[in-house]
Amino acid sequence: MFRKDEKAVSPVIGVILMVAITVILAAVIASFVFGMGSSVKKQYTVAAAVSQADNHTIVVTYQGGPDHDSVDSITVKFSPSNLTSLKYDLYNESGNKVNTVALYGTNTTTITSPSVGDTITYKVNTSQSSVGFNAGKDHVVVSATFSDGTSQVILDTYV
Hints:
The chain has a single domain, classed as Sandwich (Immunoglobulin-like), CATH 2.60.40. It is built from one helix and nine strands, in the order αβββββββββ. The chain has one helix at residues 11-33, and strands at 47-54, 57-64, 71-79, 87-91, 97-102, 107-112, 119-124, 139-146, 151-158. A hairpin with a 2-residue loop joins strand 1 and strand 2. The N and C termini lie far apart (80 Å). The model has no long low-confidence stretch (mean pLDDT 81).
């Protein structure tokens, strides 16, 4: 019934498993030796928020974060959906009116050396425009530039 030469595992299976383990181990070691694991760029952690207070006001607020000290500037790109007759007043981070802008495309505003809580306010100039912002259709993208020269989008949303 039982033969003396019956074996539980074939020697060929054992060799295949050993070769597979060796190849996997060599690949892991090679990735560290050739630096493939270190090519990932640092992801900074900072945040911004945007809110639409009413039909005529959109406020972008820089909220900072653990990597706030590395931020050189933040840039806000604002693209309202109503591009035909919209004029709005732009207020800087200190709350001072910068100017009245007729918008026919994307507006870009930059704050250098931002402080936590700095805001950029887009307020429709109701004396010059009869329309307001369209809730959920106005595109806001906030990006941060860091001290190492890299740039990263920290907010991309519609309000």
